[in-house]
Amino acid sequence: RDGKPLVVRVTIEGDLRAAMAAQRAAGLGSGSVPGSGTGSGSGSLDLSGIVRVDDTHVEVPRALVDAILANPMHVAKGARVMPTVKHGEPNGFKLYAVRPDSLYAKLGFTSGDNVTTVNGHALTTLDSALEVYSKVRTASRLAITMERRGKPIELIITVK
Q: Beta 121-122 vs 114-118: how paired, if at all?
């Protein structure tokens, strides 16, 4: 802060496992600190069924969504995810170190993307992330709003 390093220590209380599962299910990764782990992004998931229609539209097989929701750890190492704050308020989650072979990359996310909403639900609290997680199970379309290099982008994922 003000050009000087600042150490921040955070204590997370409550059900951390549920919070991390909600982040991953919302496409937000492991919630770990950048550079704190290694491993492939896709695990044993078959990502070959993902079809990139264009830069902002992707089609994903329902079977892949079901596999991710059944075991979100498959994609946990595909990117590093950190909560963001804008004007002192929570403002989504920023993706770092998106691995080229990961689900994130296949869906069109890049390092530096700040995901702010999923289907209009702001990702600002644990409750909002859990709400998104519960709705992803049955959604046939996900509209993900994010900022990329300071510009708003909407990524549309159609589940087939």
A: antiparallel
Q: At what angle do helices 16-25 and 62-70 cross, to 10 degrees?
A: 170
Q: What are phi and psi of 31, to 5 degrees?
A: 75, 10
Could you give the C-alpha distances from 124 to 93, 118, 130, 132, in angstroms and in order? 8, 11, 11, 11
pLDDT, residue 15, reads 52
CA dist 65 and 72 (Å) reads 10
Distance CA 145, CA 115 (A): 6
Taking the CB of residue 86, how many other CB atoms lie within 10 A of it? 11
Task: Look up residue 72 and give its DSSP letter.
Answer: G
pLDDT tens digit string along 121-153? 999 877 787 788 778 888 999 999 999 999 999
- Model confidence band, residue 43 (pLDDT cutoffs 50, 70, 90): very low
The one-letter amino acid at 117? T
Q: Which residue has the higher pLDDT, 10 or 98?
A: 98
Q: Distance (Å, rounded) from C-alpha 105 to C-alpha 10?
A: 29
Contact 155, 117 (CB under 8 A): no
